[in-house]
User: Which sequence fits this backbone?
């Protein structure tokens, strides 16, 4: 460990320089990220009234269903997140914004869409509250993207529900046709029996007549039920349109944000990554410096050389002043051959300069 | 800090050398590479040996012809010295100068010229010096720079100290230097140490 500490001391200014360089560039990158990011967001209130309109059967409260697990907020956020994953949705949103030209001119459209996708953020803030936000390089684009995404999502949801209603209507119409055919046949059978059998009827004939009458009544009842269902479906589409607007209410509409916003987290991330890189680089420098130079830092290192005798350690001497303070060699030479000033030992108290003999 | 305090830095080396069971009289000081402080350690060791035993005489030999720092510091760059003794048979006692410290004498490097002086008379010269001095400390060039100027001295010396400067000498070079010197158990001195609690000598 001491060797690494020594290497760190030895390359202290290199390390300080590297860290300072990365610190400045990291701070600049983080600042650029922060001031160049504009976020627009919308807060949406979600509930499920329209689904209750379609509830035609009794709810079994002891059987959990998907809506019981998912709150309206999380369900909306989840479906929105899934929509954002699709290229079609993103393309539709982009077509309504000033990014249209950017997408058309992009060399790699998939990467372009992927970048757009990463800029969306959809959060369920509570059981019924959802926040949809978008980060962009300009406030206009951020606003446009959120507004476009919300509009497209609502249009798609309404269209999907209306399509579902239309399918149900078609199914009911087909069933009504069949039921009417069955009812006509049953009535025809009853009329034919009545025409061929005149009263008084014996017991077997009376039983047969009763069966035919019952079948005709049941068929007619089925026709009446289906007619009623079709009548309901005619108004469901209108109800859904009204219900949809009540289900999803934009509480805070997206707005233009002239001041930088939403980039703090990214800026911190950028700065953190750069700093982590600096720490890693310094660690690599120290390890490589230690391994490549592999010089002796202490007596312990000498003893690791093998069968050697460490006779003594000559401590490093600190110069008392700058410039003209003599080093150990000069001091010793002065002591033996002439007269020079003396340095002091590292860590010792400063002593007055004195001449050697 | 006083000169005595600076000298205290080398008391460890002097004490250990004096108290060594083998009682080495000839101590060679070298390093692996340049700028490790060999000359300072040699000078400090010689001073501490001279101070340790007032009755002892110490000869400091500057055998570093590559960079004769001690000779320059003593102001004897143009004086005759070791090179002349080895090459020309110049009298050792005439080349030796007395220093300001009692008991410490100095043999400057002399004028080595372009070619290193022949080391054939090294043993005789050391024998002569041993006769006149109790201890001989030899400042040598770095062993990895000029092994031919180090190994003969190391072979003849009773003890060879390899100076290692903290944070400067690569471990691989130290290993090569130890192999070059060829001693069974190399004696190392850590220069510019920051081990505050470990300034006294210890045997590894």
Assistant:
């Amino acid at each position: 460990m001491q060797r690494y500490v020594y290497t760190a001391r030895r390359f202290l200014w290199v390390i300080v320089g590297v860290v300072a360089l990365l610190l400045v560039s990291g701070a600049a990158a983080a600042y650029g990220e922060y001031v160049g990011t504009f976020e627009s967001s919308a807060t949406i209130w979600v509930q499920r009234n329209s689904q209750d309109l379609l509830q035609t059967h009794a709810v079994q409260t002891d059987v959990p269903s998907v809506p019981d697990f998912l709150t309206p907020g999380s369900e909306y956020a989840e479906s929105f997140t899934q929509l954002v994953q699709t290229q079609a949705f993103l393309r539709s949103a982009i077509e309504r914004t000033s990014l249209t030209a950017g997408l058309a001119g992009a060399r790699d459209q998939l990467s372009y869409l992927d970048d757009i996708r990463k800029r969306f953020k959809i959060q369920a803030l509570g059981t019924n509250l959802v926040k949809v936000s978008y980060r962009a390089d300009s406030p206009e684009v951020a606003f446009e993207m959120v507004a476009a995404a919300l509009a497209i999502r609502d249009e798609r949801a309404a269209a999907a529900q209306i399509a579902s209603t239309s399918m149900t209507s078609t199914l009911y119409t087909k069933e009504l046709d069949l039921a009417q055919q069955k009812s006509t046949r049953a009535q025809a059978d009853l009329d034919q029996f009545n025409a061929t059998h005149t009263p008084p009827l014996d017991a077997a004939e009376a039983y047969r007549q009763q069966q035919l009458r019952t079948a005709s009544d049941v068929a007619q009842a089925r026709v009446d039920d289906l007619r009623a269902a079709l009548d309901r479906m005619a108004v469901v589409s209108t109800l859904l349109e009204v219900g949809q607007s009540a289900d999803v209410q934009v509480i805070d509409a997206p707005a233009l944000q002239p001041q930088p916003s939403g980039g703090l987290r990214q800026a911190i991330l950028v700065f953190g990554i750069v700093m982590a890189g600096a720490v890693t680089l310094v660690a690599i420098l120290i390890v490589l410096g230690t391994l490549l130079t592999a010089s002796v830092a202490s007596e312990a290192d000498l003893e690791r050389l093998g069968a050697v005798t460490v006779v003594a350690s000559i401590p490093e001497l600190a110069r008392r002043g700058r410039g003209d303070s003599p080093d150990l060699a000069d001091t010793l030479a002065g002591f033996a051959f002439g007269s020079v000033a003396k340095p002091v030992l590292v860590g010792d108290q400063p002593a007055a300069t004195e001449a050697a003999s | 800090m006083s000169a005595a305090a600076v000298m205290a830095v080398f008391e460890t080396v002097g004490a250990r050398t004096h108290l060594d069971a083998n009682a080495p009289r000839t101590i060679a000081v070298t390093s692996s590479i340049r700028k490790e402080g060999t000359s300072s350690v040699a000078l400090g060791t010689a001073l501490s040996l001279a101070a340790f035993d007032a009755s002892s005489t110490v000869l400091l030999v500057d055998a570093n012809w590559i960079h004769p720092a001690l000779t320059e510091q003593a102001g004897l760059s143009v004086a005759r010295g070791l090179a002349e003794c080895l090459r020309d048979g110049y009298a050792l006692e005439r080349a030796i100068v007395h220093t300001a410290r009692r008991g410490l004498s100095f043999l400057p490097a002399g004028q080595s010229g372009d070619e290193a002086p022949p080391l054939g008379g090294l043993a005789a010269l050391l024998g002569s010096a041993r006769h006149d001095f109790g201890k001989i400390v030899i400042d040598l060039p770095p062993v990895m720079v000029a092994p031919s100027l180090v190994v003969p001295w190391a072979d003849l010396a009773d003890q060879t100290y390899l100076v290692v400067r903290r944070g400067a000498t690569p471990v691989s070079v130290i290993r090569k230097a130890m192999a070059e010197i060829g001693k069974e158990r190399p004696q190392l001195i850590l220069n510019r140490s920051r081990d505050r609690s470990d300034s006294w000598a210890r045997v590894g």
Observations:
- The beta strands of chain B are 26-31, 58-62, 97-98, 104-107, 135-139, 159-165, 187-193.
- The longest strand of chain B covers residues 159-165.
